[in-house]
Amino acid sequence: MSQINTQQVRRCPNEPVIIGEAATPMYKHLLLPMDDSPASESAVRCGVRLARQMHAKVTALHIEPPQRASGGGTADVDRARDMLNYAARVAHAAGVECSMIRAAGDQPHEVIVSSALKLDCDLIVMASHRRGAVAALLFGSQTQQVLAHCDLPVLVVS
């Protein structure tokens, strides 16, 4: 992305703008992968606003490691349920249809990509966790992995 484009993207308002009301909506089903972070909550709000403007539906997806999903304590289950319920409340308040999925996987990016394809989603809206350069280098980024392994458009919310 050129320097000019990067600056333009950073100056965009939080509310997505749809030009040409008579146009056919570009997206009909948005996948909102989430974890337990405030960044995910922000991405959910952005995805729901976009879905409302496009008359699209959303699917909230919470992913956790298999060992936590199968033998995790009730706190883990409650946290996942709370995050999914948060997405459902935001969508309901905006008048957007929302379904919820709780999934387990060692590689969250693989679960995100396969879920998007299986559910026939046409856009993934996910958070970017601002980690330092060293942490990103050592641990990678699920967002980067999704971008690298998915042919669908991905809207990254920071």
UniProtKB/TrEMBL annotation:
Span of domain UspA: 26-157
InterPro entries, A to Z:
Rossmann-like_a/b/a_fold, Universal_stress_UspA, UspA
Cross-referenced SUPFAM superfamilies, in alphabetical order? Adenine nucleotide alpha hydrolases-like
Q: Give the source lineage, highest ranks first.
A: Bacteria, Pseudomonadati, Pseudomonadota, Gammaproteobacteria, Lysobacterales
Annotated Pfam families: Usp
In the record, the note on similarity to other proteins reads:
Belongs to the universal stress protein A family.
What's the protein here called?
Universal stress protein
